[in-house]
Amino acid sequence: xxxxxxxxxxxxxxxxxxxxxxxxxxxxxxxxxxxxxxxxxxxxxxxxxxxxxxxxxxxxxxxxxxxxxxxxxxxxxxxxxxxxxxxxxxxxxxxxxxxxxxxxxxxxxxxxxxxxxxxxxxxxxxxxxxxxxxxxxxxxxxxxxxxxxxxxxxxxxxxxxxxxxxxxxxxxxxxxxxxxxxxxxxxxxxxxxxxxxxxxxxxxxxxxxxxxxxxxxxxxxxxxxxxxxxxxxxxxxxxxxxxxxxxxxxxx
Length: 252
Fold this sequence. Notes:
Blueprint: H1 8-13, E1 20-24, H2 38-54, E2 59-60, H3 83-99, E3 104-109, H4 115-128, E4 136-141, H5 166-175, H6 221-244
Helix pairs in contact: 2-5, 2-6, 3-4, 5-6
């Protein structure tokens, strides 16, 4: 179900154990060959496919396209909510649906910079409602749910998500090829080792001059479709776990 297409009376009548899905993404630079709206277009497509499969079993809010992209602000066109503003935004989304009586709330994320504030928002909201045993709050990034698209088709070079990389470029070629520039001319920008396993503070210019990270020259629309199928199955699987939760247990 799409929240934006329902009336308030429809929402009021829903079983409040219905999972609420809040897709979030970003508008930021994606190198020389990809549009600023890449993350939102890709997250929107994953959400669209998941909503089609789940139908009335889950309620999907519209995509929140503004993300935490301060690390990309050296590149023209990037729009960002600063980390603390973004944290308040996510907390507010959770609180809105709690106020409407819903118990099972899942933010599905499509931008790496949202990951840390998203985890913090889950923590903070839960502490504000610590007496609630029926409240399930989750934040999940769609490419970190366990799927391995590179194992489902031939020719993959990357084994992880980058930025305007083989995977993201392939996904865009599958849905909006007219927005993709000369990706074949984009040279590899390696991930490197930023003092792992420590977590290093960085801005994008620390890691890349053109703006992408990974190997976009190896992209194809066929790979993109494999990636979408893999990650959509992961998202649907996560939501089905929420649907099947008994409403009390720690285990899910």
